[in-house]
Amino acid sequence: MTPLALQDITARLAAWTFPAGIDGVMGIASGGVVPAALVAQRLGLGLKVIALNYRDEANEPRFTEPRVLSAVPDLGAWRRVLLVDDVWVSGKSWHAARAALPADVEVLPFVLKGKAEFALIRDVEGCVQWPWKPV
User: Fold this and answer.
1) pLDDT values of the chain reduced to their tens digit, one per residue, 135 residues
2) Which of 5, 47, 86, 111 could, after both became Cys, cross-link 31 (CB 3.0–4.6 A)?
3) Under DSSP, is residue 6 helix (H, G, I), strand (E, B) or coil?
4) What is the largest CA-CA distance in the chain?
5) How many CB atoms neighbour CB 45 within 10 A?
6) Can you give the CATH number for the domain in which 50 is found?
7) How many CB atoms lie within 10 A of CB 60?
């Protein structure tokens, strides 16, 4: 596991060029809550959370497919949303969260690490030890 300091993550976020016209940030709970809060704070936008689960604490699949575990937040006037998670492994969690959101809302992926279109960290191999997760 590669540890990353919060200062490194926030410095990368400060230098990141986000797409224009984002109305709000949606975090995928549980792993995407802290990253989404950091992104929302960086952009000065509102934050909402959708809870779904797929993997356990050992990062092993818990279910065949990710399951939405909460009511889907009302997006109100948000028409363009960043859907944020900590990592993109298979994309299953992101796609499950996206499918739960209204079809007429443009939803862009943003992850701290992975192979999504917008991934903050691409230069670290293997798993990351996030500063907000216990060792």
Assistant:
1) 888 999 999 999 999 999 999 999 999 988 899 999 999 999 999 999 998 876 666 666 676 777 777 888 999 999 999 999 998 888 888 889 999 999 999 999 999 998 888 899 888 888 889 999 887
2) 86
3) helix
4) 40
5) 16
6) 3.40.50.2020
7) 8
